[in-house]
Automatic annotation (TrEMBL):
GO biological process assignments: alanyl-tRNA aminoacylation
Similarity comment: family membership: Belongs to the class-II aminoacyl-tRNA synthetase family.
EC number: 6.1.1.7
Gene3D superfamilies: Bira Bifunctional Protein, Domain 2
PANTHER family per UniProt: ALANINE--TRNA LIGASE, CYTOPLASMIC, ALANYL-TRNA SYNTHETASE
GO CC field: cytosol
Keyword Hydrolase set for record: no
Gene Ontology MF terms: alanine-tRNA ligase activity; aminoacyl-tRNA deacylase activity; ATP binding; tRNA binding
Protein name per the record: alanine--tRNA ligase
Entry keyword set: Aminoacyl-tRNA synthetase, ATP-binding, Ligase, Nucleotide-binding, Protein biosynthesis, RNA-binding, tRNA-binding
InterPro entries for the chain: aa-tRNA-synth_II/BPL/LPL, Ala-tRNA-lgiase_IIc, Ala-tRNA-ligase_IIc_anticod-bd, Ala-tRNA-synth_IIc_core, Ala-tRNA-synth_IIc_N, Ala-tRNA_ligase
Pfam families, per database record: tRNA-synt_2c (PF01411)
Length: 395
């Protein structure tokens, strides 16, 4: 299959190509993909492709078998202020494949090369790989370097090519596959030339890091690969960012048409609303604390931007087809009450904004300190991020 035929069907065709490739090689597709972590996990949302499988890494066994593949949606809110640039999204999807004590890391690398070149039509000349270069503790990953050399891909040793869960636990060397995104023949290396894009990591978890800092071999090695869907679709579409792909363009065009937003604002509005739909599809409902505060905060960030220029803008204008298509993409229940939740949150926030503007009018002309923010929150129920946005309006 060549790249043009893949793009005839956009992202969904790319996903089918990926999953079919691993199905044909005996992998079982993991169910779910939900943003809600497994029971007992203290983290609010799934933040990486391997997150739902972490508890199986130590043993090297998974109840569904030794060969697994999935598409995992993930959500991160630690860098919301960066959303809207060329590479940050609140919600993103990871393509993952695993071998739990089954095939070797070398096999994973060879399949990865095959999928990128034969499956997705990328020229081998556009690939460059970095592998673990060794430390004082361990030598370089010669097996991976030898495999890539046999495949004819330029390979570089890099000491930082090491994956771990944290200070303790499963860990091991990884191969990072980079793809040339510039015009003309590749130049430089990923460390010196920004037009090399890191696309796919293949990790072999060989060891367990102990509390005393030493390493011991794992009883069964686990191969874990992860590739960002947004990056893959961007690459295969020949565009500059994920916001220029069919993952985001329906949202961007809708925001522009309904509310006249442009540039970074249309990206933030589209990213946040798309993320909220996925959260609602996974059963999360807005609330004042914990998991529920994330969709509430995202909706308020959207409305704050829309109401800066025109407070008559309303989320009621969102077309049903866009909401349904987003739920369908994430394989979520189509009867999720997205519109009802959005409008209820809009009503709540509208009341809060009206009250906040009246209160903050008293502070016009002087800076707000920490004591002011605490007072406004405890007495008037105004969250600090809302106060900050409203204060810019009234000052």
């Amino acid at each position: 299959m060549d790249t043009d035929s893949i793009l005839d069907h956009g992202t969904e065709r790319i996903l089918d190509t990926y999953l079919d490739f691993y199905r044909d090689r005996g992998h079982r597709v993991l169910p779910g993909g939900t943003l809600i972590p497994p029971p007992g996990d203290p983290v609010l949302f799934t933040t990486s492709g391997v997150h739902p499988l972490v508890r199986h890494l130590e043993t090297g066994h998974h109840p569904l078998g030794g060969r697994l593949v999935n598409v995992q949606r993930c959500l991160r809110t630690t860098d919301l202020d960066e959303v809207g640039d060329d590479r940050h999204y609140t919600l993103f999807e990871m393509l993952g494949s695993w071998s739990f004590g089954d095939y070797s890391h070398e096999q994973s690398l060879r399949w990865g090369y095959e999928l990128l070149t034969d499956g997705f039509g990328l020229s081998p000349d556009r690939l460059y790989v970095t592998v673990f270069g060794g430390t004082g503790e361990l030598g370089p990953d010669e097996e991976s370097r030898r495999t890539w050399t046999e495949l004819g891909v330029p390979v570089e040793l890099e000491g930082e090519n090491w994956w771990s869960l944290g200070e303790t636990g499963p860990c091991g060397p990884d191969s990072e596959i980079h793809v040339w995104t510039g015009d003309g023949p590749p130049t430089g290396t990923p460390g010196t030339e920004p037009r090399w894009m890191e696309l796919w990591n293949h990790v072999e978890m060989r060891y367990r890091r102990l509390p005393d800092g030493s390493l011991e071999p794992l009883p069964r090695r686990v191969v874990d690969t992860g590739m960002g869907l947004e990056r893959l679709v961007t690459l295969l579409s020949g565009v500059r960012t994920g916001y220029d792909t069919d993952l985001f363009l329906p949202w961007l065009s809708t925001a522009r048409r309904l509310w006249g937003v442009h540039g970074r604002t249309e990206r933030v509005v589209s990213d946040h609303l798309r993320s909220v739909v996925a959260l609602l599809g996974d059963g999360v409902r807005p609330g004042p604390t914990g998991r529920g505060y994330v969709p509430r905060r995202l909706i308020r960030r959207v409305l704050t931007r829309l109401w800066r220029d025109d407070d008559t803008h309303s989320l009621s204008e969102l077309p049903d087809e866009l909401l349904t298509d987003t739920l369908r993409h994430f394989r979520q229940p189509l009867d999720t009450p997205v519109r009802e939740v959005l409008l209820d949150e809009q009503r709540r926030f509208g009341e809060l904004v009206r009250r906040g503007r009246r209160v903050l009018g008293r502070y016009r002309g002087r800076p707000l300190g920490d004591d002011d923010l605490r007072y406004l929150h405890d007495t008037h129920g105004l969250p600090p991020e809302v106060v900050t946005d409203l204060y810019e309006e009234v000052s």
